[in-house]
Recover the amino acids of this structure.
């Protein structure tokens, strides 16, 4: 398996602050890998290290087989980068700005810029500084995608995009993966990338807490369940359910008589347990990976995730 | 595209589009394209200064009233301003435009451009995205500095052309070659100022330090010259003033001083080289 990105004990310190603490990460070529974590976890630091905007205190990184620093401009032409804090200024139109970025990145296929702008619904004739945050973000995405680089490094790409454009963006990610390109992206909300990411690395305080594929994360995920059972009052229902493994947070709605609960992990014991009763209603929601991730952060960090 | 192991993407779309289009000096061209409005504004300001001051020469400086006014001023002030030869066209043009208002305008432009080139761009957060592309840090400093040099040179040529155009009507009696020599000195002097801004910006990444460094060098050069003018005992101070290197040889009257020009442009080049190396060695802030 060829790796598009490989870091080994990658560490970045600023004085006494450790922004990144010995990160070992492997991003296989042709895959979509997401990095999830609260603000300050080291996502942006990692990406800036890969682009040689900052240099590691220790450890190494290989990007498309090269060291970011010695790879230099030639290597960066083969990367599409979207910064987390995208600031675009200037009294130029979006098209003029993209033409400039084209001159300092890889070659752009004819018509490619218009095709991308159309898909995002971005008006290239407007002046950049007059664009809204969402439209600036679209412009940032176009400059990252336009030269079809072998590797895309996208820091919080979905921030500021409305849901429709987010879907278009996710569709585009699937296309570039099918094209053999590699995508390394970050988000502080898992739900935005869980549909496309092959693998998710969860970061906390400069360390990778876990690397997992989305499917395994789903298996350990928290599900919300709503349950109605005939012939049991609230107290009986609570008592019966409380004994079931993986079940917690039981609450019975007085008006409807239905129980609301969460299942943490395996749902089978609950199904077996309720099969003895006369079930009138059962809804198990799509697993909320967000909550699973929050569980990994621990409660004290949970408040940082917004 | 490259000789490294081709990725699937490179074999796919990359191969289809084939050629690598490199356009020369992309950052230099972008810097010029982004600044044409400001360059026009500076050109208008300089034209206004020239049009306001120089045509007054026949009615002001060449008259005995002006000379008696100057004689009534404290000699220290005359020395500080370098107003001893207001009675000649060269002296008047040097004292009013090259030594004062022109120097001020060129200096302000140089400080703002020198600060914006690296530190301003970095603090606004735009430098990061540029450097994430296929350009090197050194290339960025060199190309943007070259764009500053071109802009200052344009202002110098523009000022020269205007002064040469009015020298007869304003009775200044200036040699065109000497006007160009004085402009070359002014451009060299303010290019040193801009280069300090570029170098400090490249080393620190801070706008404040960059501006303070550039403006500080300009003000200090002027101040040292003013102090050194006071008495022959302090004459040795002149050699520490870039302002004196530029104008001490009276280029408007005497013509170009090649040694001084070489020193000014050489120092500017050295400062830019320092900036190019320094930016390559540090982290770029987000």
């Amino acid at each position: 398996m060829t790796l598009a990105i490989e870091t080994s004990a990658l560490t970045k310190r600023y004085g006494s602050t450790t922004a990144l603490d010995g990160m070992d990460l492997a991003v296989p070529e042709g895959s979509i890998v997401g990095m999830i974590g609260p603000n300050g976890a080291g996502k942006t630091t990692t990406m800036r290290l890969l682009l040689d905007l900052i240099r590691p205190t220790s450890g190494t990184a290989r990007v498309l087989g090269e060291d970011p620093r010695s790879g230099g401009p030639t290597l960066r032409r083969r990367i599409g980068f979207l910064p987390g804090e995208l600031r675009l200024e200037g009294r130029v139109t979006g098209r003029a700005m993209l033409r400039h970025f084209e001159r300092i990145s890889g070659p752009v296929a004819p018509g490619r810029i218009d095709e991308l702008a159309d898909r995002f619904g971005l008006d290239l004739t407007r002046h950049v500084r007059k664009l809204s945050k969402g439209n600036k973000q679209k412009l940032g995405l176009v400059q990252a995608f336009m030269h079809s680089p072998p590797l895309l490094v996208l820091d919080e790409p979905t921030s500021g995009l409305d849901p429709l454009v987010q879907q278009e963006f996710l569709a585009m990610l699937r296309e570039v993966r099918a094209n053999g390109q590699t995508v390394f992206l970050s988000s502080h909300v898992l739900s935005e990338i869980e549909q496309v990411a092959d693998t998710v690395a969860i970061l906390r305080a400069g360390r990778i807490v876990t690397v997992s594929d989305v499917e395994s994360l789903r298996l350990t995920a928290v599900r919300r369940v709503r349950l109605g059972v005939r012939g049991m009052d609230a107290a009986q229902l609570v008592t019966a359910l409380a004994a079931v493994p993986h079940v917690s947070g039981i609450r019975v709605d007085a008006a409807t008589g239905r129980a609301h609960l969460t299942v943490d992990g395996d749902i089978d014991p609950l199904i077996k347990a309720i099969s003895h009763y006369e079930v009138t209603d059962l809804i198990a929601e799509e697993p909320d990976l967000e909550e699973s991730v929050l569980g990994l952060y621990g409660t004290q960090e949970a408040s940082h995730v917004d | 595209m490259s000789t490294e192991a081709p990725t699937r993407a490179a074999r796919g779309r990359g191969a289809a589009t084939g050629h690598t289009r490199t356009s020369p000096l992309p950052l230099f061209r972008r810097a010029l394209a982004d600044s044409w409005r400001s360059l026009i504004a500076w050109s208008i300001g300089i034209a206004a200064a020239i049009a306001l001051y120089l045509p007054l020469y026949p009615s002001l400086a060449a008259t005995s009233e002006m000379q008696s006014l100057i004689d009534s001023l404290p000699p220290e002030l005359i020395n500080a301003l370098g107003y001893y030869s207001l009675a000649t066209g060269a002296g008047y043009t040097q004292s009013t435009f090259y030594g004062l208002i022109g120097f001020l305008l060129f200096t302000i432009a140089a400080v703002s451009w020198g600060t914006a080139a690296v530190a301003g761009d970095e603090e606004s957060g735009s430098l990061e995205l540029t450097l994430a592309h296929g350009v090197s840090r050194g290339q960025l400093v060199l190309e943007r500095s070259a764009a500053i040099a071109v802009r200052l040179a344009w202002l110098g040529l523009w000022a020269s052309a205007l002064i040469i155009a009015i020298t007869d009507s304003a009775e200044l009696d200036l040699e065109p070659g000497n006007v160009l020599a004085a402009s070359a000195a002014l451009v060299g002097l303010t290019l040193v100022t801009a280069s300090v801004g570029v170098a400090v910006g490249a080393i620190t990444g801070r706008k404040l330090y960059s501006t303070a460094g550039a403006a500080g060098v300009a003000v200090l050069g002027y101040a040292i010259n003013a102090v050194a003018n006071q008495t022959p005992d302090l004459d040795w101070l002149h050699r520490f003033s870039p302002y004196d290197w530029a104008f001490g040889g009276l280029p408007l009257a005497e013509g170009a001083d090649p040694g001084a020009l070489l020193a000014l442009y050489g120092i500017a080049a050295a400062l830019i080289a320092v900036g190019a190396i320094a930016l390559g060695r540090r982290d770029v802030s987000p």
Observations:
- Residues 145 and 241 of chain A are 51 Å apart (CA to CA).
- Residues 299-306 of chain A have pLDDT under 50 and may be disordered.
- Residues 222-286 of chain A form a domain with the Alpha-Beta Plaits fold (CATH 3.30.70.100).
- The longest strand of chain A covers residues 3-14.
